[in-house]
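Let us work through a complete example step by step.
Step 1: write down the sequence.
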Amino acid sequence: MDPLLDEKIVITLARGFTEYIQQNLQIHAVREAYGPSRNEGLCYEAASGIGFGGDVEGKLYFCMDGYTKLKMLPVIFEKYGVNLGEKGMADSVLLEFSNQIASAIIQELRDAGYNITLEPPENLNHKLVPIDLSTNRQYILIFFLQDRRGRKYMGRCYLVLTLKKF
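Step 2: predict the structure and record it as tokens.
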């Protein structure tokens, strides 16, 4: 048992997210805040949950408010080569985007020697998601997103990590 496991996962998550956003979208993500959280739930306009299991069990929630979603969608659509005019694609593109981020982060943890598998992403837009704090530890990371090329503020992205207590 590694007593610093939570800290390693949170640091890997923070670094992995900023690197993925920078490399794939050319968006600068600055970590504004992070730490343990006692929130008993979450609800965002754009949210996806991706469970993982193995040596560590938990769930990663990738969340944005409406403003951030409107600013990020064109950039994400461009990355995947999807036409902005196609109806009904926003949710599935955001799910794939969050799944790609989670996969990159989980791969880093696998490279560090942890046996972890990913579950399929779940669309949680506009849903109240309860978090049982008696069985989970919770961490929140808040990132300020900025497109430096266009000098545009892109909003904030929230990553909420829950880990099963031992």
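Step 3: interpret the result. DSSP finds three helices and eight strands in the chain.
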